Amino acid sequence: MATxxxxxxxxxxxxxxxxxxTGQFAELPGFEEASVDLIDxxxxxxxKVCENVLFATxxxxxxxxxxxxxxxxxxxxxxxxxxxALTEGGWTSLSCDPEFGGQGLPETMKFVVEEMVVSSNMAxxxxxxLTHGAYRALNGFANDELKQRYLPKMVSGxxxxxxxxxxxxxxxxLGLMRSRAESQADGSYxxxxxxxxxxxxxxxxTENIVHLVLAKIPGGPNGIKxxxxxxxxxxLPDTNNDPGDYNNTNCGSIEKKMGIKGAPAxxxxxxxxxxxxxxxxxxxxxxxxxxxxxxRLWVGMQGLAVAETAYQNAAAYAKERLQGRSPSxxxxxxxxxxxxxxxxxxxxxxxxxxxxxxxxxxxxIGVSLSIDKADRHPNTAVREAADKRVALMTPIIKxxxxxxxxxxxxxxxxxxxxxxxxxxxGMEQYVRDVRIAQIYEGTxxxxxxxxxxxxxxxDGGQVMRDYxxxxxxxxxxxxxxxxxxxxxxxxxxxxxxxxxxxxxxLDAGAKDPAAVGAAATDFLKLMGLTxxxxxxxxMAAVSLDKLDGDNTxxxxxxxxxxxxxxxxxxxxxVSLAAAVRSGPELLMALDADAF
Amino acid sequence: MATxxxxxxxxxxxxxxxxxxTGQFAELPGFEEASVDLIDxxxxxxxKVCENVLFATxxxxxxxxxxxxxxxxxxxxxxxxxxxALTEGGWTSLSCDPEFGGQGLPETMKFVVEEMVVSSNMAxxxxxxLTHGAYRALNGFANDELKQRYLPKMVSGxxxxxxxxxxxxxxxxLGLMRSRAESQADGSYxxxxxxxxxxxxxxxxTENIVHLVLAKIPGGPNGIKxxxxxxxxxxLPDTNNDPGDYNNTNCGSIEKKMGIKGAPAxxxxxxxxxxxxxxxxxxxxxxxxxxxxxxRLWVGMQGLAVAETAYQNAAAYAKERLQGRSPSxxxxxxxxxxxxxxxxxxxxxxxxxxxxxxxxxxxxIGVSLSIDKADRHPNTAVREAADKRVALMTPIIKxxxxxxxxxxxxxxxxxxxxxxxxxxxGMEQYVRDVRIAQIYEGTxxxxxxxxxxxxxxxDGGQVMRDYxxxxxxxxxxxxxxxxxxxxxxxxxxxxxxxxxxxxxxLDAGAKDPAAVGAAATDFLKLMGLTxxxxxxxxMAAVSLDKLDGDNTxxxxxxxxxxxxxxxxxxxxxVSLAAAVRSGPELLMALDADAF
Lengths: 595, 595
Hints:
2 copies of one chain form a homodimer.
Chain A: H1 8-18, H2 21-26, H3 36-54, H4 58-64, E1 67-69, E2 72-74, H5 79-88, H6 107-120, H7 122-141, H8 144-156, E3 159-164, E4 180-183, E5 189-199, E6 208-216, E7 227-233, E8 235-237, E9 243-246, E10 249-254, E11 265-278, H9 284-290, H10 292-320, H11 344-376, H12 380-415, H13 418-421, H14 427-435, H15 444-455, H16 462-477, H17 485-511, H18 513-546, H19 554-569, H20 572-581, H21 585-589
Parallel strand pairs in A: 3-6
Antiparallel strand pairs in A: 1-2, 4-5, 5-11, 6-7, 7-11, 8-9, 10-11
């Protein structure tokens, strides 16, 4: 029987001890009330809902899957009750504006609660997760009338939101889009076209669905500069703002997928559906991308969230399953064999997952704190710097964390041997579910291109240089602490490698545009590893201070994992740097026909 | 629509040009007739059956899956016809003894044909694959009466074979087994017990099923030394050697699995079933392991075989899918966008898969040639050396090739973006199917332990040292060829690293048994990469000789891929060596409760 326990202690450690979240919130107007006690209460209560209500629907939801019948989508049994527990408990509106019924807490609080929601049921989590993305886009770009009409119901969870970007012939390249929006005399538009892969395009959890649809207004510029964003509800709100006339948003079918089977990926056919412009004409991609950083942080977090559940179940199995004997002599002398946790290679898989998950958690929470700073800090320069830091780190979070999440889930599945391959045990579902995080919201290859092609060159490379300087400044501050040397020395070596690769890349990219793409993924991994090494060095520093003679507890464990990351995972930076520098020639040498 | 084209040209290159297979066969009595023409005819004809008959059942077989109803298992529609095409065409009996109706060709020919069978339908391939394993065990250990009674029908494919090892509480640790065999007055035994994960334990392709069952004879030694091997047919052969009385081999259920859904993983309940001893009492594990090298080579090959199909479909997609523009300017100027094959990062995924697949193919065929040598060479010393080489390389083939196969399949799935996650496109099936190769026939962690714990120490390390010497001798022989330097130099660096790690490990393992397990997986990967670098250097040497001004064809492509492997994949050896040397202390530092 699979289990999930919310990692409240670790979230508290990262928020309070590593990042001093409340100290950061204190500088942000409106967040003064986000105290340690409040945060802990939120984590504890939300964790219970995830453990007790959501997780119970995870495996059955995968077995049943979302069902399409005659245009209507039914979600698996139990989803409606679980969704109700989430929304009525206020767990999906933590960071929403109190003007619309939200609780006005930091985005960071939304992210950490969402991590637990994803861990306990990733498929279900997508519905409120996408609704929040739509909320952010509307709150940022829609006019007041639209906001007043739609946001309260979205914040309460009565109505859900979707993002409708992809068409069958264009995913990454949105400029090829064919969906059309015809302007009407009343200021509205008639939207027509087909979108695919629309998560939650139809479902039976909410009484209405608010689609955010990218489409072209005829006569506008070609390509991506002619794309606008529209709000298109499933049912047009009536005078009481209740769902009224059906708006021809037809779900033509749902995809059979590898995983997240409880979340319907819909083919949506808009046929003269009424929509309203969100933001300016032909600036739809800007509005969509404004929430993209947020969405991509969310997706990266999904990687570690699913890996967390996979880890917990693999560790439980490893402590129970009796096979063979410890290489150092029997430990379970009364039993027929020892639990497999005695084997170094089983520990390797578990500790690799643990070092990845906890490092990733520290990193995403750090970036989400920067989102709050970018949203709220009174000082413009601080806001702008935070915004650029978020922009720089977004592709790292999205791609590196989802890659690590997948790797961790595969490793944890491996711990169970043949049982890991059998559906009953649940492990293979985590692998299938988490795989999508490497693909959607821009594939990880697209993230890598975003990092090296757009983010590194920001301000002539200064944003990246500021980040490197911060890593060096952390290392400098630890120089007098001799028991930090084992963490700081490998971190500094990695920062050197990262900086050299960065400067090489700026130079090579200026000479040959293919050099950027050729290095992209390996550079992203190199930077991801270095960023996480920074987090682990920080966690080691905090833990060394708290250790106080306890060599077996929480802080001792953190220090061991920090060492493990430095010694066994961080050395990958060396081979990644070699791949970065191998350049584009080999990749471009073959004709397309030779593939 | 997914496609598969048998890689006949590449198989011919590896067999004839890289390994001089016919030259090797010429030294093996009985294989004189395995000429280039014969080999090519086999490859061509078998390839057509795989392309035209087997592959058509691959995706539908996954959708339908094996079905259990009231104790009987039905395989997906089309499997029976495909199995018939395989067996009646003689494609499953290539290497079997002519005395029992086989064609007496080298095992190598069986492996290369089997690669194509796996590529076109991995789930179905398991039935004849396991039958061949059972054939080898019986041919090696059963008495003449059992051989005469069972082998002709197994060779013809009328009867299938299984391997019944695992019980619910013991997979890796067979000494914990509970199945019992009671000796009968007529020399037979009554077998009782439950086995799980029995692939093909029941199916409707063959008229009888021959189970090879491990069980304990009461009163024998404890643990693995008291395990014997028995032949237990589903139906007892009657006087005409046709299937007669049912032998109480009951299939209690089949597992719901992540993949290979067309292959039933059965719970088998033996209830006083009649069986006959194969080999000696209490020596069952020896008989089972005698075929294990062969089985593990087969499983490792499955990794690249499935990856081959994944690659072909990813490459086809990348050449067709239009998204964005080449970084060096548009190439498809009349179209709305360029095919995604123009992007260096897409090429990176495809070339990584290609370098892994072709390198892996060269390696497994090399080892399968050693199997033939170990079986047949007239010189005892050559036979023994070949046998030890196979033993050394078996865990590399099983684990490294299945790991690379999974990684390649995941990379190829990634090329398709969202479409890779949708079942319709077939890519996610390859990922799900190939995943099992990392798990069954001994998990890859068990393989790594086998390598470092049993294989490296063989003859005091001499078997490994002989292998290292062979790698160095290859490098020495190329030293005067300046255009080989770019391949030989990185190979030699990898061999240095491998040798240092090996000597370090022998030394560290002598001091602390946990050091062996702690290094096992990373050492295996280090050795796997080096072995494949050897193959690529060899393929580069052959190709440089044949190049003859053609810079775009088959040989030029091989050279580019060899460079790619050396520059972008082989550098991983450096970080793996660092992980090997990090030692066991960190892995063993935490109490089990800290996991």
